[in-house]
Write a structure and sequence with these properties.
Blueprint lengths: L13 H42 L3 H18 L5 E3 L1 E8 L13 H17 L3 E6 L2 E2 L6 E5 L5 E5 L2 E3 L3 E7 L1 H10 L2 H6 L3 E8 L5 E3 L16
Antiparallel strand pairs: 1-10, 2-8, 2-9, 3-4, 3-8, 5-6, 6-7
Helix pairs in contact: 1-2
Organism: Alicyclobacillus mengziensis
Protein name: DUF881 domain-containing protein
Family: Belongs to the UPF0749 family.
């Protein structure tokens, strides 16, 4: 005896269907990006193994291979300066912008969140290196709004206090970075809080320069236990 079970599903139409489609497409793109990153890491590891094998038994060759490896790791960790085409985003208070009592001054209360969102969008859309007011962002970096005893708040990047104008410098794909900022209406959202946002592209091999990270690294204060 053959039994067939039919299950009906509610039909999704309109904005719900579009939202589901966008969510799925975003997930697929993220998975594809992760897949490409893993493939690059595998290829890099295989190249390093081949390099070490080729240098086996030759002290000078092995030392050169290790030095090149150390330089590569330092670059990927953000310890060295990076130059290339990119953009700068300057954010500062502009009293000439239209005043709305509901949103004016709100940026001072959420500046860490707003700048954090911008940075995340840039990294996800073509940025390879980013700094904020000269502070290089690495995997252990923090962007925090810290309140003092007087009640005033100060934005800190890598625990270093910074003040306006906030300048975000990003090396990477200019078109992709500008596109995501346009799509998210970044300038308009900051303007309604009376914050000016100037986005400037810089082309060429030395368009912008992001400095190397200068703060403490994980394990810097660790000591060996005897």
């Amino acid at each position: 005896m053959l039994t067939v079970q039919l299950t009906s599903h509610p039909q999704i139409t309109g904005s719900a269907a579009l939202s589901s489609y966008i969510d799925l497409r975003t997930q697929i793109e993220e998975q594809n990006q992760e897949h490409q990153t893993l493939l690059q890491q595998i290829a890099k590891a295989e190249a390093q193994v081949s390099e070490y094998r080729a240098a086996a038994g030759h002290g000078t060759s092995m030392m050169n291979a290790l030095q090149q490896d150390a330089q590569s790791v330092a670059k990927e960790a953000g310890l060295t300066a990076v130059s290339g085409p990119g953009i700068t985003i300057q954010i500062y208070y502009d009293p000439t912008l239209p005043f709305d009592e509901k949103t004016a001054g709100l940026f001072d209360q959420i500046s860490d969140q707003e700048i954090g969102l911008i940075v995340n969008d840039l990294f996800a859309n073509g940025a390879t290196a980013i700094s904020i007011n000269g502070q290089r962002l690495v995997t252990t970096s923090s962007i925090r709004l810290v309140s003092g005893l007087s009640g005033n708040s100060t934005l800190q990047v890598n625990t270093v206090p910074i003040t306006q104008p906030y300048v975000i410098t990003a090396v990477g794909d200019i078109q992709r970075m500008q596109a995501i900022l346009t799509l998210n209406n970044t300038v308009a959202e900051l303007n309604i809080m009376q914050e000016q946002c100037m986005i400037t592209p810089h082309t060429g091999a030395k368009g912008v320069t992001v400095p190397g990270y200068r703060g403490p690294l994980p394990g810097s204060f660790a000591k060996e236990v005897q």
